[in-house]
Amino acid sequence: MPDHLNVGEYSSNDKIFQQSPAGVQKQISTVGNDVLLSRLSLNQMTTRRWSTEQDVQAACELGLKNIGLWRLKYEDFGESETASLLEKHRLNVSSISWIGGFTGAHGYIIDDCMREAVQVIRYASWLGAKSVVVATGEQGRHITSHAQRLVIDSLKLLGEYARECNVQLAVMPMSSPTAHGWTFLTSLHKACDLIRKCEHPNVGLCLHSYHTLQDSKWKQMLPLIIDKIKLVKLCDGVSPKRPRKQCLPGEGKMDISSLFTLLESLGYQGLYEIDTWCEKHWKSDNAEMLQSSLNWMKTIFPVSVST
């Protein structure tokens, strides 16, 4: 979770809480798979150390129509300034990351987490963002059922507000080695069980390829949960099964091609986001790495299935 809470703009009288529970270089031609380009987004976490202006410039030069916002960046750059920049370059917002921490494992107060979440949902609605990504928070000292209840109650309440704002909440599970500090949902099964118990149309799943492809049952699970998927994030791993490091799609050995094919064959029509946490790329100010990854994805994206 982000290491701060920004709740100063909110009054304790919010009705929803009365029930407290170097510059980017010009790239080579982006002519290619129009279907993929229209549905692909660049998440700001992939370019963590770039400025917001660099992120926007890179997305435009790659031919993308969407960008995924990271809260620490847009809060630093300014909410109005970010909105103006995106409007100027005609970029849509695929998602905003993150809200959550509902278990209180980091010492967060639940009302503060909820107020913060409302602020993000409200901003997402103003921008026309498709979804807000959720990290539940660690289980901490709670038993599993109590941790689940804390999250479910929070998401039901926020789901109602999200529905009013026409925003989707996308809960993201993570593989066990990576989940520390973020979530107790360490499998697709656990995440889908929680989403099912929320019983809310605006609460669904964020599928992340790096974590999903480590789940041995992902191929069996996807047909059962396809209608719950709000967003798909794309990231590769340096080894095919239990990679210790992330890398851009096409740089590693995970079976992203099969994930693309299955999702599209099942009728997924949503957005994909390049979302890679890699120290090597965070240190780079060169956009060629992104172009190479995009070129690779164009070769494997199943256009015939989706069209």
Descriptive key words:
alpha/beta; TIM Barrel; 8-stranded parallel β-barrel
List the helices and strands and how they pair.
Elements: H1 34-39, E1 40-43, H2 52-61, E2 66-70, H3 71-77, H4 79-89, E3 92-100, H5 110-127, E4 131-135, H6 144-165, E5 168-171, H7 176-179, H8 188-198, E6 203-208, H9 209-212, H10 218-225, E7 229-234, E8 236-237, E9 246-247, H11 256-265, E10 272-274, H12 279-282, H13 288-300, H14 303-306
Parallel strand pairs: 1-2, 1-10, 2-3, 3-4, 4-5, 5-6, 6-7, 7-10
Antiparallel strand pairs: 8-9
Helix pairs in contact: 2-4, 5-6, 6-8
Notes on the structure:
It is built from 14 helices and ten strands. By secondary structure, the protein is an alpha/beta fold. The protein has one domain (31-306): TIM Barrel (Alpha-Beta Barrel), CATH 3.20.20.150. The strands form two sheets. An eight-stranded parallel barrel has the order 1-2-3-4-5-6-7-10, surrounded by five helices. Strands 8-9 form a two-stranded antiparallel sheet. Strand 1 (40-43), helix 2 (52-61) and strand 2 form a beta-alpha-beta unit. Helix 2 packs parallel to helix 4 (79-89) and helix 5 (110-127) runs parallel beside helix 6 (144-165). The model is unreliable at 1-32 (pLDDT under 50).
